[in-house]
Design brief:
The mean pLDDT is 88. The protein has three domains: 128 residues, Rossmann fold, CATH 3.40.50; 139 residues, Response regulator (Rossmann fold, 3-Layer(aba) Sandwich), CATH 3.40.50.2300; 104 residues, Homeodomain-like (Arc Repressor Mutant, subunit A), CATH 1.10.10.60. The strands form two sheets. The protein has a six-stranded parallel beta sheet. It has a six-stranded mixed beta sheet with strand order 7-6-8-9-10-12, with helices on both faces. The chain is globular, with a radius of gyration of 23 Å. It has 384 residues and is an alpha/beta fold. Helix content is 49%, strand content 15%. It has 18 helices and twelve strands.
Amino acid sequence: MFCRVALLFDTSFAFDRAIIRGIAKFILFNRSWILFRQSPYERWQNSQMPLKEQLIKWKPDGIIARETDNINDLFDLNIPLIVSPVSEPFPDYTNIVSDNFAIGAIAAEYFINKGYTNFGYCGLENYKWVKERYEGFYSKINKSEHKFLKYKRQNIKEEGNWENEQQAISVWLTFLPKPFALLCCTDEVAYQVVQAAKLVNILIPEEIAVIGVDNDEFICNICNPQLSSIDQNAELLGYEAAKKLQELMSGIANENAIILVPPKNIITRRSSNILAVEDRNLQKALNYIASNTTTKIIKVDEVVASTYLSRRTLENRFQTILKRSIKGEIIRMKIETIKQILGDKQFNISEVASVSGFPSTDSFCHYFKEHTGITPGTYREKIL
């Protein structure tokens, strides 16, 4: 028995493409799906026939769709529907939603761990998800120790054009305290910020470190310097959406729900790959940890030896400036590195252990669970 499923997404968006990849993973184990998905050429060819009429003619058993202007037409079909909302979730349907608050929070923690004290946010206005990312970012900033500035960027389509926006961003960047850590609501906005910085000779990341959201590899790689970005884990959203739709079409479930998925990780590229500390010995210590933590189990004495300071003096500087010990920083960096490797499906757990410098898989699993509370396998299941 085949299920006819319509996928209504805009594949010009990296987020939508990732959702479709997640749906494709589900279909690998559920081969009964027949898909309706229009390419841009097909949309143009069929532009004379409203989408609702096309769907009525095709007779889908279920739909997974991005919110669009004609979303009410899909509601009228009265068939199982999963929605990826752009604004507010739709209360009578199952919605798939990124954990936008968590996206902002991990960006703040990332910058704080690099030693920044000046923070900012650049985003579109009037979108719930943009505000949630801002709130998550802002909530982690210690207001007594850190300075925070927000750029209220307007929707270009409504308020102006690219050139005017570039000029406004350039002026704002000029007056920011340096070094500065900046989260942008999307990769598109981050790309525009990097271009604006060039207009006023501001160095990225030396003066302003920039992170976007979506991990759109096309945008991230054409950006110069290449753009760091947060992977929203949209593939998992797509997989969970497909799983839920199958239940709805099978009559196993009929309740409406919010499917909320946490972000996967931060993909560090050149635009944020720098540490905001002025103390040269601390810089040397941090650079040593960052350079060696991927393939080695680093000891505190090695880090001390990379500087001209005594262990006690260096420990004091770590505690004063970074609010953690040398050992704590080694563990933090090691765990973050391991998490990135675990996100690469080409390595199994034993290979991740070997690549990470552990003498055995057992010692690797014990180390990871000791410092995260979960096993490497459980972590991988959560993000993939």
